Amino acid sequence: MTAQESPETVAQALRHALVGDDLPDTFTLLGREWDLHRGVFPSTLSAATEVLASIVPYPPGGSFLEIGCGTGVISVTAALHGCASVTALDINERAVANTVANAERHGVGDRVRALHSDMYTALEPVDRFDTIFWNVPWTYVEDDFALSTDLHSAVFDPGYQGQARYIAGAHKHLTDGGRLLLGTADLGDRERLDAIAEEAGVRVEMLRRVRRIEEVRVMEYHLLELHAR
Prior knowledge:
The chain has a single domain (7-228), classed as 3-Layer(aba) Sandwich (Rossmann fold), CATH 3.40.50.150. It is built from seven helices and eleven strands. The chain has helices at 7-19, 48-55, 73-80, 93-105, 150-155, 161-170, 190-199, and strands at 26-29, 32-35, 63-67, 85-90, 112-116, 129-135, 139-141, 156-158, 174-185, 202-213, 218-228. The protein is globular.
């Protein structure tokens, strides 16, 4: 979203990507073909999924948790990069089914479990992961902005409440020495994110920046790591 676009304008422009009857049932990304279910935010709508899937440091032989898995590209890629176990969570039940389909398509269904979950709620207290990652909905809107559709949940994070929950709850599910990662973009409100992290006793480190020319502007995608102070 650019500074000139309202949240409503963005939502209207992207709604077709969720429900359009003329959309294909598959897409190509990272040299592979992927299933796309209706009602799931397409991974090709921006370069975010492609960029972040390519730069996330997956733990070889370890465990990986993805929040907001969407079509499952990043979770499946984690398994293909050698993670022994991957857990993919999404608040959208259609996304959970889409991730299962793509895990099966790429032969990693035995290593990827997908669960319907509001943040960490579907996890057991004993579940621990070597890496936790979320490609966040970085567009900031005020706390009272209504998330009336699945589209809104994929794009907007009112008051960055979701990112605050992500940071606050992660320590319960990280292994000793585990890594907490966050994918965002230069359109996000970094000052607000830093304030949320500081309140939670966490500092934010920039791991990677990747710039991509997109239809409207040059986007800069950020891979961040959050460390306990």
